Amino acid sequence: MIGAGDLDRRIRFRRLNPSDDGISQVGTWEDLGSPVWARKRDVSDAEKAAAGSASAATVARFVVRFSSFSQGIAPGDAILIDGLHYDITGRKEIERRAFLEFTATARMDGAP
What we know:
The protein is mostly beta strands.
């Protein structure tokens, strides 16, 4: 079970706002709402191996309270925490819609 005290990190959700500069598709990341409380757990190397991933990327799972706001977050969006940008790759409901869990991969290039 997840308790309120487990949500001990502040994260910000972001979404890519695409635009066309006439030559190519570009975009900027825009913050969504206010920061929310979350639990962050890094995925272990064993879990990465079991999933068939051999990369050196940092993969983490973030748990937030289920809400109309968090329900609108999806793969393709991102999480910003401690200056790192994580691309969201998965989402699932846990504990009977009390929480949402997002799986995300950190960008190692320092992108926003």
